[in-house]
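For anyone still unconvinced, we reproduce a single protein record, the chain in one-letter code, the fold tokenised, and leave readers to judge:
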Amino acid sequence: MDAPFKKRRRRWPYVLLLVVLGVAGYTWLALSWSYADGERVGILQKFSRKGWVCKTYEGELALYVISGVTPQIWNYTVRDAAVAARMNNALGQRVRLHYTEHRGIPSSCFGDTGYFVDSVQPVDAPVPMPASPGPGVTESK
């Protein structure tokens, strides 16, 4: 009667190892395989390093569709310290951010959002279009 009990008791380390390897494999897959990627252009409004245990770089990009209208705020995470340093220098400027989206990340230790920015480029301010004369108005030269 003791033999089956001992056999069952010795299996738990293997089951625990299998569970740990499964969670680690899923986390690796969620962080390395991107769901989507793209670019967003806006003004870097906020950038900080935050977290209680796992410190991550988090920021906000203000997306202005029409001037004078409240901007849409897009939250993102930066994992690379070199990109974070460039973004910190570009605060308040108009920039183009390239990002990858990762879904199903099991913990907020990797970032508060699923959008991970991997490059930043400053963008010149848009050139205003010249005002066209109204109907019936001719331009004098």
Summary: The chain is about 25% helix and 35% strand. The first helix runs from residue 2 to 9. The chain has two domains: 1-33, 34-122. Residues 1-33 form one domain.
